[in-house]
Fold:
Amino acid sequence: METGIVMTVANLIRGILMLILGNEFIVSVIMKLIGIGAMIGVISFAAILFTYTERKVCAFIQVRLGPNRVGPRGLLQPIADMLKLMSKEDIIPYGVDRVVWALAPMVLFVPSALAYAFFPFDDGAIFADVNVGIFLLIAISSQSVLTFLMAGVASNSKYGMIGAMRAVATSLSYEAPMVFSLLGIVMITGSLRMSDIVAAQQNTVWFIVLQPIAFLIYLTTCFAETNRTPFDFVECESEIVAGAFTEYSGMRWALFFLAEYANLLSISVLTTTFFLGGWSGPILPGFVWFWLKTIFMLMIFLWIRWTFPRVRIDQMMSFGWKVLLPLALVNVLFTGVGIYINRFM
Structure:
């Protein structure tokens, strides 16, 4: 039943458009465009909001001031940053592969935005509720490593090349345990559909209780997925200047920046969906619960980033292959045993 407030509003808008236009096909196209516009709006607003929030969280943790001059309490600082990036000169370094170099930041943003089509924001409010939702999400998110490789190789820069190679190496180290950490959830629900995962947690307890080891593995790999401390090896300012982004400036660099925050929000949404019951919750509307849980996870990601130092890349890769992957496989084994035992109880 599509009973959420988001779907109620969507159905109301659809009904109004039907009265005005009277054509089901045209109305369906308009509704799809509205959905796409809403997703892009969420991503853009999140990037603006996160630049301010992250600076304030960082300032609080490290006993600093943070933005406090541009606008009341520095609230207009993200707008000033946006205007600065838009007005910066677009510098193209000598010797770059112009086509690949120019495509990289644009292509990076595509999988970051496309993933939002599979998020269940409320009861029935999901853009594409396909029966292989998790599989598609993993496939789409893994494409980001290709764009880092494009940016680094095409930049004609040793720092960009090193950053690109790091992206490829680390992606192999953390995406394998990430996939296996989610396999336990798929085994319990018996479905790859995102809405089914949320529905399964309504009938029992949240999967953070049933799959605590998977939650810790997934949370750890998320930091590597979003290139954030303590696993920000793609950029790593103190070692390789800015990694794969070194030769980019202005709005080209801003697209990398926007994709990073889009990934941060999507990882928080996925953690909410997989382990915290999604939009389910008492009394309050579903989308309110959904965003409360998502904001909670965002604060955890920001807190950890500004608390722990960066580890070495060899430490991270060793931890991924020797600790996280075996632990994820053991979790799958015990999940299977638990499901088998539960059938006879």
Summary: The chain has one domain: 91-342.
